[in-house]
Amino acid sequence: MPAKSRHMRFHWSLPGSGVANRRRGADPRNEVNPVADLDGQRDFCRRADELGIDSLLLPIGFQRADGCVLAAAFGLVTKRVNFMPASRAAVISPTHFVQQINTVSAFTNGRVEVNVVSGQGSAELRYYGDFSTHDERYQRTDEFWTICHALWRREFPVDFAGEFISVEGARVNQAFVSPDRHRPYIYIGGSSEQAQQLAIKHADCQLRLIEPPEEFAPKLEPALAGGIEVGVTCNLVVMPTHEEAVDHVYRLAENAGEAGKAAVADWRRMTSESVGFESIYRMAEDRSPWLTPYLFCGLVPYMGPQSISLVGSPDEIVDAIFEYRRIGVTQFMFQGRPDFPMLEMFGSAVLPKIREREAAEPLVATGDLVHEGR
Amino acid sequence: MNGTSRPARFMWSLSSVGERLRRSRTLASVSGVPDIAGHVDFCRQAEACGIESLLMAFGFTRPDPVAYAAALGRHTEKIKFLVAVRSGILSPTYFVQQINTLSVLTSGRVSINIVAGRVPDELRYYGDFLPHDERYERTDEFWSVCHALWRGDGPVDFAGRHYRVESARLNTPFVSDVDGPSPVHGRPEIYLGGNSDQAIALAIRHADCLLTFPDVPDRLAQRIRPVLDSGTDVGLLVSLFCRPTRAEAIDAAHELIASAGEQARQLHGAMRARTDSVGYTATYDMASRESDWATRYLWTGAVPYLGPPGIALVGSPDDIVEALAEYQAIGVNQFLFMGHPDLEQMTFFGAEVLPMVRARERAGVR
Lengths: 374, 366
Description:
By secondary structure, chain A is an alpha/beta fold. Helix content of chain A is 44%, strand content 16%.
């Protein structure tokens, strides 16, 4: 199995609804003010920086502030953490996008990565003027990233004539600035077959919603065989003891209540094209909420697919993470409810143990970063 | 007349700060990597000099102005960022989202400069293949969508030839600089750079101020009359050579073109052939048709070397105050300067010219 990261990498998704919000995902998206606690988000970034989090995801969508602009601002108040704005191909010219990312790289010394997403569903994409179908979106994304890679390789002038995007003679003078890379590290989120193919072609890591390890392992094979990493996205509930962690998830569900269920039902209608989201909803409907002793899907009806949770004490979470490592998962994208205390607990009580155990059980690093030449 | 009752507002171009021979080299040779510390110093000096905002231009040779303004905004307190934008390279909804985010981060210190792009070759770098006239139509649609989003009176539906959005909404608000000089709230103040009839019509429809190259006051007055009559401001985009004496200012101007040299002249000969901008062509023509001195203070001698933005006001502080007053008298109330070199020229302007302009305004002399 190709294991290109000697160390697992741990990321956090920055909450637009507030770093102290325990109802993340349980409120109607229309009512979220993503900048109401901007100072709290800045403090969260600084703390993640201190605790050794690798990257902070800045999601994209109508309910969010813009990730590229936030990356520029938060990048200046941090030292080592990366920022990972999410990107949609239909909202910006690829040349302009590369110029923006390269600009952010110039004053963060390369601390910018990109998370490629296909959007929250057709209705929301039309807010942005994107009227394409699910399949057309993948083709557009493919064209977009073909152009971006050529610009990052600085194969000027770049000419490309696609079905959706064409450029002629393109160049961007501002280079990607980094001590060791010519372009940002790229994640592609999604669980569909098309997302997987796109990730193998253009990205360094496919990000997927978490599933129980045994059924998850075969689904990861194509990406791993394609030479890219796999990361999982989930909610993290880590408390000093197992009982406290379990108690916490049940209180989260109770607190979200019927209002949460209604918000999730709306959200589900809006995002019905997402293959990954649908499979998590069905899992939550059809199965016992405890998919494994540490993987809990009982929050999903109250807070959405991304609230599928790893639950346990610090030692249990370490064990769970190493179970995923065993099947080839090398990156983790967490969110918390609330985010700030979970980040604190993970950074102080879990991460040091992971690093210790990694040193004791090293992965054999085989092969180089095959995609660096891309 | 429009401009006589209001104090003049002053802006400076940040885009070529640190490049003494701006616009005299081939664009592909410019590194694009900004001198960040130098620009932060320049922003702070602009704040100290009484400059209201700094223009951040758009183009393949430059850092992205929106991302860059977010960074510079963290190091500054008062200065506003006049961010250039072209329609056709991003979704209007996404653009408003970026600008609103920037407004939150800078407490509203952002305004917009709408540009059409002036070289079709370069527009194609960005995937924009539209001809000149259709660009204006698309720009009109783009700004119709943006204004509707900023008005915030419900989900936005728009179906145009170039843009279509359905039920668009954004949760990130525009934060206004309530203590600042901008007369508009709930959206950024909007400038539009251009000289063609289409540009003027667009400015009247969507902008708060038309930014244009200077001409002799009589001719300019005619051209801008419909703009002023519509209640839209007019601003001049102009280079400044101001030195303690008129002789020194003229020397500085000539010295600059001497050091720019023959290569720069050839470069702009080529640029002139490629542009489809009405304003650029008109200013190149003016420079080659008439004497270098269009008036006692308006000098076109640098245009063949630096391009149309090289059109300059030249003189002593008294001369420049006089020149500004002439333009104020025909209703121009905003000025966007470029200096050669910028930092020294802006500092000199802030110390020697601006106090006289303000004294004159206070005394009601025009």
